[in-house]
Write a structure and sequence with these properties.
Layout: H1 2-32, H2 37-55, E1 64-67, H3 73-80, E2 83-84, H4 107-120, H5 127-149, E3 158-167, E4 171-173, E5 176-190, E6 199-206, H6 216-230, E7 240-245, E8 249-255, E9 260-267, H7 283-299, H8 301-307
Parallel strand pairs: 1-5, 2-9, 6-7
Antiparallel strand pairs: 3-5, 4-5, 5-6, 7-8, 8-9
Helix pairs in contact: 1-2, 4-5, 5-7
C-alpha cells in the first residue's frame, strides 16, 4: 500500500515537472518572437488546466464499518487472520488447561443465585435473570482472586467494565478494506485506566435468544479486535479469552498468541435444578474464570516488569 502511494506521488511530481518545462519553452518563445503570443496563450491555459487536474486532491474514500454481530465466521477468520486450533496442531496448548486451581462460588453468591431462581425467574433462559446471575458470579470470583493476590508485590488490580466499545484496525475481507466494531457486554482488563498500560484480557457476551452458541461469532469478533491490537506490542502476550453465557451454559473461548482459537462448554445445572454431588454446579465455571483472571494478573505489563 505504501509502495503504491510513493509511486503515485513520484508520477505526479514528474508530470508537474514536465508542465513547468513547457512553461519555460513558452516563455523563451515569447522572448524571441512576441508576435506568437496569440498562439502560445491557449497552450499555456491548457498546461495550467492539466496542472490543476494533476494536483487536485483525490476524493477521500469512506471507510466501510461493519457491526461485529453481523459477521460470519469466515469473515472473522479472514479479517483477523485467525483460525480454529486443530487437535493435531504441533505444540497445541490444551484447553481447558490441566492442573488448574479448583474453585467454587461462595456461599453468599450461591444464596443470591437461589434467590434469583426463586423470585425472579423460573426459566433458565430468562435474560433479566441471566444478567443478574452473570454479575453475581463474575464479581464473586474476581473478589476471590483479588483477595488472594492483595499482598503480592508487583500485581495490578483487575477491573470489570460493562458496555465496552471495540473497533478493529483496518482489515481486508474479499479484497475490500473495512473496520469491524461493536460493544461487548463485559470486559475484564488490567492496567492504568485509559493509559497505555490498559489491556483487555477477557471478553464476555451475554447470550441472547435462548441460544448461547449463536453468540460464538460475535464473541470471537470482539476477541479478534483485542488480539489484533495486542499482538504487535513487544513484550505483551496476545492471548485473549472469551465467554458466551446465559448464566446456565458457559462457553469458554481462548485465542492464543498464534491466532488459533479453541473452546469448551460447561453447564451449571443450577437454574434447571440438575445438580449432582457436593459442588454447587458452578465449580468448573468458577475454576475456569479464576484461571483466566489469574492469567491477567500474571501477564500484566507491571507484573512482567517487576519479575523480569
Amino acid at each position: 500500500m505504501a509502495k503504491n502511494k510513493n509511486q503515485k506521488k513520484k508520477n505526479i511530481e514528474t508530470q508537474v515537472h514536465l508542465i513547468w518545462r513547457e512553461f519555460g519553452s513558452f516563455t523563451r518563445c515569447l522572448d524571441v518572437d512576441p508576435s506568437k503570443a496569440d498562439l502560445l496563450v491557449p497552450n499555456l491555459k491548457i498546461a495550467l488546466q492539466r496542472q490543476q487536474e494533476i494536483l487536485k486532491p483525490a476524493p477521500v474514500e469512506e471507510v466501510t464499518r461493519k457491526a461485529i454481530g453481523d459477521l460470519t465466521r469466515d469473515e472473522i477468520n479472514e479479517g483477523f487472520g485467525i483460525a480454529k486450533e486443530l487437535p493435531e496442531s504441533d505444540g497445541r496448548q490444551p484447553w481447558p488447561p490441566r492442573n488448574m486451581i479448583p474453585r467454587d462460588i461462595s456461599a453468599g453468591c450461591l444464596t443470591s443465585i437461589q434467590s434469583v431462581q426463586k423470585y425472579m425467574a423460573r426459566s433458565s433462559r430468562n435474560e433479566a435473570a441471566a444478567r443478574v446471575v452473570i454479575d453475581l458470579i463474575l464479581f464473586d470470583i474476581l473478589d476471590q482472586i483479588m483477595d488472594g493476590h492483595c499482598n503480592i508485590s508487583g500485581t495490578w488490580p483487575l477491573h470489570i467494565q460493562m458496555e465496552t466499545s471495540l473497533e478493529s484496525n483496518m482489515v481486508t475481507v474479499k479484497g475490500k478494506d473495512q473496520r469491524f466494531r461493536g460493544t461487548s457486554d463485559y470486559t475484564l482488563w488490567y492496567g492504568n485506566g485509559d493509559g497505555p498500560e490498559k489491556a483487555i484480557n477477557l471478553i464476555i457476551l451475554e447470550a441472547k435468544a435462548q441460544k448461547p452458541a449463536a453468540g460464538d461469532e460475535q464473541a470471537l469478533g470482539y476477541m479478534g479486535c483485542v488480539h489484533q491490537e495486542r499482538r504487535f506490542k513487544p513484550g505483551r502476550s496476545a492471548i485473549v479469552y472469551g465467554v458466551v453465557t446465559d448464566g446456565e451454559e458457559w462457553r469458554f473461548w481462548r485465542l492464543n498468541d498464534e491466532g488459533r482459537y479453541s473452546w469448551d462448554v460447561e453447564i451449571s445445572g443450577m437454574l434447571s435444578g440438575d445438580v449432582k454431588g457436593k459442588e454447587t454446579g458452578y465449580a468448573k465455571i468458577a475454576t475456569l474464570l479464576g484461571f483466566i483472571m489469574e492469567q491477567a494478573m500474571i501477564l500484566s505489563p507491571y507484573t512482567t516488569r517487576m519479575h523480569s
